[in-house]
Amino acid sequence: MNRCIIKRDIHGNYRLSFFSDFRSEKSIICSSSRNYEYESFARSKRTVIDYGMNNDWDFFVTITFDGNKVDRYNSPVVLRKLQNALKDFRRFYDSDFAYVLVPERHADGAIHFHGLFKIGRTDLLERHFDVYKRCVYYRLEFFYRRLGRFRMDKIASKATYVSAYITKYMTKDNERIFQRRYICSKGLNSGEVVVDVSGDAAIPFVDIMLADCVYSTGEILDIKPVVNRDFCRIYSVDETTFRMLFGNVIPNP
């Protein structure tokens, strides 16, 4: 089922998300059945994007496990070691700590993670310099000691688009390294739903609103998607533009 969702984020901006039909090409031709595995895959990506765009993040994180500390080819061991480390850091060192992480396999089968961190205890950060990339990066000694190579790159601005970037690490073949395709801390904000349009009406929804805005105001709004993937298009607009586009749309109760 096609779906168009409009959400308001924590900064007062609006996100227009159009999600395509989840049926496989074969299913579309042969029957009306849905591809549930692909639907789950797309839903996981949407959730990661939601968390990334609706929370304040400080760092883009890469975790590469040390084989002497963690059996990085064993998914249950990797997950247990990582979750225990994340839990202990939040419990004993930083109560404001938050995260969303996506697993990926190296070519040799070893597991590593990419994701986003929010750090409250900035005094725990270690500053390092990458001589090859000629840039500064950061590290937390706690994770370095327990897990292995651990790099954090400062996010220059709000992580509005970085969240979409990390979804590229979700495997295209729908492989589940763990039961879930991502792990995250509790209490993350996923945004406030303003409008939710499903079915055939969702297909022309954004285009109709743009055309209506041009007709009623005489202004041509060149709004390009900030995310343009096979399963979704996402537009980000400020409140003024949103009111011009959707002033006559009745919000969800």
Characterization of the model:
It is a single chain. Helices cover 29% and strands 28% of the residues. The chain has 7 helices and 12 strands. It has helices spanning 25-30, 36-53, 75-92, 141-146, 162-166, 205-217, 239-246, and strands spanning 3-8, 14-19, 59-65, 98-105, 111-118, 125-130, 135-140, 148-154, 183-184, 192-198, 227-228, 232-237. The strands form 3 sheets. A 5-stranded antiparallel β-sheet has the order 10-1-2-12-11. Strands 8-3-5-4-9 form a 5-stranded antiparallel β-sheet, with helices on both faces. The model is unreliable at 22-31 (pLDDT under 50).
Protein topology:
Blueprint: E1 3-8, E2 14-19, H1 25-30, H2 36-53, E3 59-65, H3 75-92, E4 98-105, E5 111-118, E6 125-130, E7 135-140, H4 141-146, E8 148-154, H5 162-166, E9 183-184, E10 192-198, H6 205-217, E11 227-228, E12 232-237, H7 239-246
Antiparallel strand pairs: 1-2, 1-10, 2-12, 3-5, 3-8, 4-5, 4-9, 6-7, 11-12
Q: How would you describe this structure in keywords?
A:
globular; alpha+beta; single chain; five-stranded antiparallel sheet
Distance between the termini: 22 Å
The total strand number stands at 12
Mean pLDDT, to the nearest integer, reads 78
Order of helix and strand elements from N to C terminus: EEHHEHEEEEHEHEEHEEH
Strand arrangement in the largest pleated sheet:
10-1-2-12-11
